[in-house]
């Protein structure tokens, strides 16, 4: 049967977990699928495990990339894949709750959706597979991620943090092709993909169920790859947000004269956008200047005059600012955008 869904699963040295990952996908019976499993330079028995799975189930398609990195491995997987819908999976995660069927249904029911993710459940293991506690920072990120469900949610939060867990998503093949496919960048390849899609007007959503058990283990790229460092995320935000602000053609103001606002403003400046105003509620900062721009109180903002970037780091501050701006007639997405 020709697959509707092709699951792209790159792996490297995942002999301990890849069988469970494959089994969790292949156990779904409600959608025609294949799994394109790309060995990206393994030195353990992972390729033998995958070969054994392929011998038992023809839906497993083994591919070898020679160790080219995740972006090019994914591009290779996509070139081999036959499905019109491309799903992602990592070799140490577990797909649950008929994720693929639910995502395919969501894409079928709404032709305007380009990408559908899923809520995730984070769990942690050590180098030998022993259970560990998920860190507080990751728990907070997952709570935030799982609170973003609708296309409006994803558009609103795009410059705050990556709003989709990459191994949890399914996307239309033509949508991926329309934005240039998977690309190697200085920053995380998945966040770059979402930012490119957002710039192209692609609508993203999540199924409301938990669809992936997302493993965090010692050595995971999220923690060790320099492309996932905070500084690289700031570079990505500065690059794409500056392009958006230039199109709007208005003077730029940044709400937040603290560390978060200053760093984001510096990233914008590196991309040719120079904030002319900073906004803050701290009376000790008002009247001073930062990066050559004055710091003023919120009452100085005029709707329609500035393209406002809200960049604050204190927990709960973003929600309070959104409430204030809404009461003053500002519309998120038109008059201001939140970032971090």
Task: Please provide a written account of the structure.
Residues 6-177 form the Glycosyltransferase 2-like domain. With 340 residues, this protein is an alpha/beta fold. The protein has 2 domains: 5-228, Spore Coat Polysaccharide Biosynthesis Protein SpsA, Chain A (Alpha-Beta Complex); 242-339, Rossmann fold (3-Layer(aba) Sandwich), CATH 3.40.50.720. The chain has 12 helices and 15 strands. It has helices at 18-26, 46-56, 70-80, 99-109, 136-146, 151-157, 173-178, 189-199, 221-224, 230-248, 259-270, 317-327, and strands at 5-11, 33-39, 60-64, 85-88, 94-95, 113-125, 131-132, 170-172, 203-217, 251-255, 277-279, 289-290, 293-296, 306-311, 336-339. Strands 1, 2, 3, 4, 5, 6, 7, 8 and 9 form a 9-stranded mixed β-sheet that branches. Strands 12-13-11-10-14-15 form a 6-stranded mixed β-sheet. Strand 12 and strand 13 form a beta hairpin. Helix 8 runs parallel beside helix 10 (230-248) and helix 10 (230-248) packs across helix 11 (259-270). The protein is elongated and about 70 Å long.
